[in-house]
Predict the structure.
Amino acid sequence: MLALIQSLPGVALFRRLAWMCTALLVVLSCAAAAAQELTLTGAGSTFAYPLYSKWAAEYLKAHPGVQVNYQSIGSGGGIRQVSIGTVDFGGTDGPMTNSQLAEARQKLNGAEILHFPTALGAAVPVYNLPGVHSELNFTAAALAGIFLGTVQKWNDPEIARANPGVKLPNEYILVIHRADGSGTSFLWVDYLSKVSPAFAAKVRVSTSPRWPVGLGGKGNEGVAGLVRQMPFSIGYVELVYALNSHMLYGSVQNREGQFVRADLNSVSAAATAMAKYMPSDFRADITNPPGVGSYPVCSFTWMLVPTKMRNRAKGEALKSFLSWGLTAGQKYASALSYAPLSQAIVEQELQALKLLQY
Amino acid sequence: MQYPPRRRQVINAVMLTLTGLCTLLVVSVLFFILGYLAWHGAQSLNWDFFTKLPAPVGQTGGGMANALVGSLKMLLLASVIGIPIGMLAGIYLAEFGHGWLSGLVRYTTDLLNGVPSIVMGIFVYTLVVLPMRHFSTLAGGIALGIMMIPIALRSTEEFLRGVPNSMRESGLALGASKAQTVFTVIVPSALTGIVTGIMLNLARVAGETAPLLFTAFGNQFWSKGINEPTASLPVMIFNYAISPYEDWHRQAWAAGFVLLMAVLLINIVARVVLQRGRRVSR
Amino acid sequence: MTTATQTGESVEMQPSAASMKLSFMERLRKGDEAAYLITLCAALTVALITALLAQHLWANSSLSRHQSGWNFLWSSEWDPGSEIFGALPFIYGTLVTSVLSLIIAIPIGLGAAIFLAEMAPRKLSDILTFLVELLAAVPSVIFGLLGIFVLVPFLTAYVVPALRALFGWLPIFQGAFYGVSYFSASVVLAIMIVPFIVSISREVLLSVPASQREAMMALGATKWDVTWHAVVPYASRGIMGSVFLALARALGETMAVTMVIGNVPDVHVSLLSPGYTIAAVIANEFTEATGDLYIHALIELGLVLFVTTMIINAAARLLMLRFKVQEVNA
């Protein structure tokens, strides 16, 4: 090989290599231009990532040629990227605030960002307690205390009271929260602020709350990963992550005083209880609802859709994908432990979608 | 009487052992990494890994075919950007440049070389992604390409300087112009070194993750052309490693093994060729 | 004026020295001007890219710079939700992990360099140096991968209990240990920078003139004496240069650190607690920084990192000026 390199005259080699590379690049770029296919890029909520990635795979089967590339970078990321237009749609579980919407309007030259709920999910407290293999009950006060740092040990009376008969270890609790901007964080903090004035006083509700204690994991995946690895830890993740990683998660006490475990029924119950409060822009808050059997830490997850897109084809493709998700896509939701949307909400959304013109 | 004194001989022996142990420690880390990755990664490697796309979240199976292709595309782009600029600038410094301009170029090359890779990611984000209004393979390729420039420049300059002046003089004496001499005599004779330098450069840039996080972004499907976001091997390893799924961990090991093997093989080949080249010229 | 070549063809020989100066057009045709211009453009492009980088970092951090001024560097509150941005936790974390990694890496690296340059037989030294330089080529994300799954459990099970038993009374080893911490990040960084210290120090040691060694040997010294009392002092500035280069590398390291440091934006005295570094926070929060001030604050962090590595690299170059060293591709 040495001889080969040394035998080629320098200029001829460079020229050949340069032509090869340029030719390859031209071919690659042409492949993009010539293709009939379309790619929609979305980013955001890790909460909804399992659902959207399933939808993308199934939608591709139903509509070959339309790829929906969704990157799970956290709701904060979804809000940011869709506001500056670097992605076609966003995913978030913490609705955009009015100031964020105003900023987006300004950056996108007047285009609005619309919220479309796609599914209902729940945030559950996952934990890793060596020696404890049962599902624990958590009161609102216990959870607030844990995440505030005032409840420091696993055998604290606040936790023990709700779990008679379970031998809780005398170990410090390791709190795991999100390191990135997260709608799941928003949901968790929103719930804790509603049930604990002490928590509300200390922590502001946002997608990037200032946590008094704990370690940060990146994405729902990161939090679940850390809880799995660290003994005596507790974190909050979307239900499907707890189920997929076969982790233990606890029941949370709802407003009625029951200890409710998150599942399709309890999540749907929460949504039903709050159904009459659904605003026209769909930015509803359904944490800590009344009603027997409702799970208190539920949220809609929204797709953020800008009213102006770079080209019509993309806009229409996005509308088509979203309509598919709201109708045919709902059946995949239950398999992934998201509660499907009620018919009433779906109707409302499809109406709003029709009004969207690109 | 013994000379040197017994005490100093003992110290000599002790320090020899200690420093030898230090070296052993460092070298054994390399073998540990290789061995561990070979054990965990190789057993997770299968045909699917090289041919399939990632499966939806929570489902087992799938592979990293798009990440492999994405990485290759970006390396190609990076080479097209980084190598010509680096080499031509290196030729300038070695053959044509004098005075303050050369000094300035060398200083800025060193600066560019010292830029942390995450900062390079920020730069290319504000330079390419924001104006283009989307993430792309092109942005990732540009980030990696800019990182290749300083090393391509430095290695080209060094190897050109290593060519004896007699060759330059003989070229000029035969009536060739300076350009002709440089491009048809000097550069080819330094070519072994330059090519191996490029190979080492590529191997280093192939493993870079940070600059790709907000330039190439990611893609669970095939990325077409250079205008779409793309998956890449190092970023996939990162994402899978911090996840809670066993199957993703398994795939991260496999990907790590593939990446490490590729990088090490290029390094070994390049360095062996380089050493042999050095020995020949000596 | 024509002459005949060996094959009998006529060759146009160059005119005499007086008319040797070629006209601009002739030079252009011969390609000299073109080559000069093209390579000059390439060289200027490099300078331009660097300038552009600095300008982008400066311009895109303007909101944050105007908001906090110099206070940015020593306020310790990082609360993006309330738009409060203080860089101290990250600067602290970056410094702590880098310095600790140096403390771990320098003795081992220097020891290995001394062995390879002075004490080992040439053939063995060549092979081992080759292997050490291969270690330098391992990508950072691989170190991160091994860091999470191998190193952190190892540290948790064996090293930290031992440290606590011996030094638990020191404030830097107190508090709970969760695996991810300043300490784990420092160990991973140390493993990553050791090859640089080894290979550059080795080159520096090899470049010490033989006269230094011979003078000492003539006085009846052992190999170690020669090394420790003659060679190393002579090479000390170059060795410091290699340390600075390793430091610059450690400061900017992103992936391996972010996977094992815990991602907590607080200043903790204990090395066993989790923390954050500048590179790690940028990697984690950049794509989701909602709000311009947030992004500008992150870019300002990048600017701080850029300036710091610039200064340290410059210091390294100054120290190594005397030593013409063939560097490993750092």
